[in-house]
């Protein structure tokens, strides 16, 4: 029962999906800040008012055209912090555990490793030519 759970976790899909969901959520914060900080003030040129934090005003006599750079910077910092925490708390330990305890499957072998195996098999069979089925 625990072996099945371990295999499920080591499959990689669970961690990748969790990281993707959290990163997607953090990215939504950046997009929301961009919309609230830049797009909305650009649209507010045509009406509305209000003055906020770090930023600049596009039209001096219309407070609603205030571009909120502070919100965008905050969202970017939040995104970078979330990405760093996810990497150092989830991804790095998972990769270390997978390298230490995970099995290397045939599918993860590199082309060089596969070519070396083919070469070794041909040498063992006493032939330097590929089998007829592999010749063109």
UniProtKB/TrEMBL annotation:
One of its GO terms (molecular function) is mechanosensitive monoatomic ion channel activity. Its main location: membrane. It comes from the Bacteria. The keyword Heme does not apply. The keyword Phosphoprotein does not apply. Keywords: Cell membrane, Ion channel, Ion transport, Membrane, Transmembrane, Transmembrane helix, Transport. Signal peptide: none annotated. InterPro entries: Mechanosensitive_channel_CS, MS_channel, MSC/AndL, MscL_channel. GO terms for cellular component: plasma membrane. It is a multi-pass membrane protein. The chain crosses the membrane at residues 12-34, 72-94. It is found in: Cell membrane. It holds the Pfam family MscL. Belongs to the MscL family. Homopentamer. Channel that opens in response to stretch forces in the membrane lipid bilayer. May participate in the regulation of osmotic pressure changes within the cell. HAMAP family: MscL (MF_00115). This is Large-conductance mechanosensitive channel. It comes from Nocardia stercoris.
């Amino acid at each position: 029962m625990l072996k099945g759970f371990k295999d499920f976790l080591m499959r990689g899909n669970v961690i990748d999906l969790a990281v993707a969901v959290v990163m997607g959520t953090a990215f939504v914060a950046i997009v929301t800040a961009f919309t609230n900080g830049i797009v909305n003030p650009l649209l507010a040129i045509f009406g509305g008012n209000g003055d906020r934090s770090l930023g600049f005003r596009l039209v001096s006599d219309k407070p609603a055209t205030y571009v909120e750079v502070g919100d965008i910077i905050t969202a970017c910092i939040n995104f970078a912090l979330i990405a760093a925490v996810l990497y150092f708390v989830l991804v790095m330990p998972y990769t270390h555990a997978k390298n230490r305890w995970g099995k290397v499957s045939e599918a993860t072998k590199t082309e060089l490793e596969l070519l070396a195996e083919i070469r070794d098999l041909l040498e063992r069979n006493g032939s330097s030519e590929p089998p007829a089925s592999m010749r063109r």
